[in-house]
Design brief:
Blueprint (H helix, E strand, L loop, with lengths): L4 E5 L4 H12 L4 E5 L2 H5 L6 E5 L5 H15 L2 E6 L14 H29 L2 E6 L12 H21 L4 E8 L13 H13 L6 H12 L9 E4 L6
Parallel strand pairs: 1-2, 1-4, 2-3, 4-5, 5-6, 6-7
Helix pairs in contact: 1-7, 3-4, 4-5
The structure holds NADPH dihydro-nicotinamide-adenine-dinucleotide phosphate.
Length: 239
């Protein structure tokens, strides 16, 4: 049987890119969304539509999903992975950075859910996988606003999971510890970036995007009547 459409946000690097490669190798048709469309197109994956979409723009998500559904049929899985981590001290950080993180990490996720959920409920089948973080379960220095967004991802995912369980739609939280990606590079403070790198070295290095892609694949590929509610994974030596 041919496989159903999977949508991945933030597929132009890191965890999203690794997940696109993994699910494509498993035979899923894909819709990949991010701002750097050329990076997604460079992956050169079969049965894959790449669209330049900012996840804060719900209409742009809806248009891209409609186009992909014309080509591949209804969305069976949405992976809300797009995210920004801008670390800073609460009294020093530019509030515009907090706004960006809430817009992308929280509103971007809700926008994606808004676009696909009615169809999944109507079909009585579907899966939404939200990429949170261990920073959505405990706090870390310099992480106040980022942790706020990821605690929100955990809360919203679990809330909607309960809301749509009876519609046979699954909501899954994936909570990685530190992963080697571009995520830290957008933080403006060199001192905070240096401290983070030191923390990573202190635990003997962190896990890889592929490790998260494997967890996502495991959760999604369970039968529809089994919902892996949450996976938490990190380097063994991470606190
Ligand atoms: P990357 O920086 O490599 O990837 C982030 C992705 O998000 C990019 O593809 C970027 O694409 C996309 N993105 C950012 N803003 C937008 C936007 N407005 N609209 C659409 N896409 C956007 O980092 P990771 O792979 O590490 O991050 C992926 C997710 O994993 C994030 O939610 C992050 O919080 C989470 N995570 C990461 C951890 C880590 O240690 N790396 C640990 C725990 C969770 P583009 O710039 O092209 O738009």
């Amino acid at each position: 049987m041919s496989k159903s459409l999977v949508v991945i946000t933030g597929a132009s690097s890191g965890i999203g890119e690794a997940t696109a490669r993994k699910l494509s190798a498993e035979g899923y048709p894909l819709l990949l969304l991010a701002r750097r469309v050329e990076a997604m197109e460079a992956l050169n994956l079969p049965n894959t539509l790449c669209r330049q979409v900012d996840v804060t723009d719900v209409k742009a998500i809806a248009a891209a999903v409609a186009e992909a559904e014309q080509q591949f049929g209804p969305v069976d899985c949405l992976i809300n992975n797009a995210g920004m981590m801008l670390l800073g001290l609460a009294d020093e950080q530019d509030p515009a950075e907090w706004q960006t993180m809430f817009n992308v990490n929280v509103m971007g996720m809700l926008n994606g859910i808004h676009v696909v959920l009615a169809g999944m409920k109507a079909r009585k089948s579907g899966t939404v996988i939200n990429i949170s973080s261990i920073a959505g379960r405990k706090t870390f220095p310099n992480h106040a606003a980022y942790c706020g967004t990821k605690f929100a991802v955990h809360a919203i995912t679990e809330n909607i999971r309960e809301e749509v369980a009876d519609d046979n739609v699954r909501f899954i939280t994936i909570a990685p510890g530190a992963v080697e990606t571009e995520l830290l590079t957008h933080t403006s403070s060199d001192a905070i970036k240096a401290g983070y790198e030191e923390w990573k070295q202190g635990m003997g290095g962190v896990i890889a995007p592929q490790d998260i892609a494997n967890a996502i694949s495991y959760a999604y590929n369970q039968p529809q009547n089994l919902c892996v509610r949450e996976i938490v994974l990190a380097a063994t030596r991470q606190q």
